[in-house]
Amino acid sequence: MCGFIGIYGPEGVDVAVEIYEGLLAVQHRGQDAAGITTFTDKFHVKKGLGLVRDVFNERNMARLRGHIGVGHVRYPTVGVGSDEDVQPFHMVFPMGIAMAHNGNVTNFLELKERLKVKGVRLGSSCDVEVILYVFARALADRVKSTQKIEPEDVFAAVKVVHEKVKGAYSVVAVLADGGMVCFRDPFGIKPIIFGQKATEKGLSYACASESVVLDVNGYERTLDIGAGECVYVSPDRKVHQRKLGDKPHRPCIFEWVYFARPDSMLDDVSVYRTRRRFGISLAEQWKREGAPQPQVVIPIPDSSRDAAASFAEAMGLPYREGLVKNRYIGRTFIMPSQGARTSSVRRKLNTIPLEFEGKDVVLVDDSIVRGNTSKRIVQMARDAGARKVYMAITSPPLVSPCPYGIDMATKTEFIATGRTAAEVAGAIGADFVMYLEREAMNDAARAGNPKLEKFCNACFTGEYPTGDVTREMLAAIEGERCSSQQQITLWSS
Q1: Is 459 a catalytic residue?
Q2: Residues whose CB is less than 8 angstroms from the CB of residue 108 and which lie 6 or more positions away in sequence, other chains included
Q3: Are residues 218 and 269 in the same domain?
Q4: Is position 25 within any domain?
Q5: N or C: which end of the chain has fewer CB within 10 A?
């Protein structure tokens, strides 16, 4: 899970500040590293480990000149995250291109070896570097005789990427010779949004991993780039759009469950309204199944707030903010190690005992992954005086690892693996746990856009839409992630 923004502004306008503002808006998608690359007559680069506010300052921002550029915040799915892996990546030969992405290339190691055979040695363990090389080579082969990039050349190069690069990815690239390219994997698993705005000097174009990035910079959201689709803004400022495949659209449902900001629109579906529908559906399920009757509803901030509010309304119960969040602590879900996640819970959350004392409380959360964080929160509720602690979860049990760019857990780490909801409740110390049924979750998102027939539910079902995820691949991912956790532990000790 990462966040990005690309901007192609009018001549004479520096876009770095807008890119910076966009990265702040998607800081929730990656806390490990940030980078911006712009272009004039050469590429200007500033990248580093840490939050956006830590990487950039007035001095280095002043050097990021140019009316075209791309920015990125990173959350690594494998590895400890080094300087060499910070996006965006750029090259000057055979084409001048800067690129950033969100997602994960499932055949990264295979492609890396193929490039090695051809004499290309990658300088990082970041999979966007593979996409960059495949795209650049395909584009260079198309234009080597004319030295002029046409829309058909761009579409052909992206089609080569679709054929060779497997997995889930949304990509933005800016070309040194002019133009911006935005595309999505054949199944459209990772979101990408495109927009424009009028300025005194002409139209400015932007694409991003979430619509909120466009909002904060004053861009109108004009389209959600579809599955297997490419948008190319050429140097003459014309927008060229082409669908390059016929695979079924399978957007990741977890974007609406957890990842995206509530004020974002993804695939023309409001994140906020979807989470509201999650809460209503869960309340209906709670009543239908005769679950224990709580006295108060308390959200586990922040991503469950909207669902908790609608859950309370549908249940006819009071909604209370019983857990106070320290907003200067990052999202525990994407902390690099279990130790970091566990130790951050107490720093991140504190209780208001008055809302817990002597009450049967239902805590609403978006998911339970490993269970360690949930266990700590349940205990905090009991320490605050709660008589009973129930948990209402706005997604089904997580049981399968995600090879598409979400380092949520390996199969052996999921607390729901081999356990019933009652057993999960026992493991985390809760009196009762209810998960939202899978189809109810999908229906809640689909209600915002009936054209979305199905979603990627792989983390709940183990059914991977790309069709190329094997047991061997999952075993390799699990081994690599376990090794990475060991590296992180050693690195941070």
Answers
A1: no
A2: 127, 130, 167
A3: no
A4: yes
A5: C
Whether residue 395 lies inside any domain: the answer is yes
pLDDT digits (tens, 9 = 90+) for 420-439: 999 999 999 999 999 999 99
pTM of the model: 0.92
Q: How far apart are CA 389 and CA 299, in angstroms?
A: 12
Do residues 154 and 227 both lie within one domain?
Answer: yes
Whether residues 283 and 230 fall in one domain: no
Distance CA 74, CA 35 (A): 9
Give the CA diameter of the chain.
78
Boundaries of domain holding 470: 265-492
428 lies in the same domain as 335? yes
Using one digit for the tens of pLDDT, what is the confidence trace for 3-33? 999 999 999 999 999 999 999 999 999 999 9
Instruction: Please tell me which residue in 2, 207, 456, 459 is annotated as part of the active site.
Output: 2
Helix (H) or strand (E) holding 444: helix 438-446
- Is 207 in contact with 154 (CB distance < 8 Å)? no
Residues 74 and 100 in one domain: yes
Q: Which of 480, 479, 437, 478 is nearest to 460 (CA)?
A: 437
Residues making up the chain, counted from first to last: 493
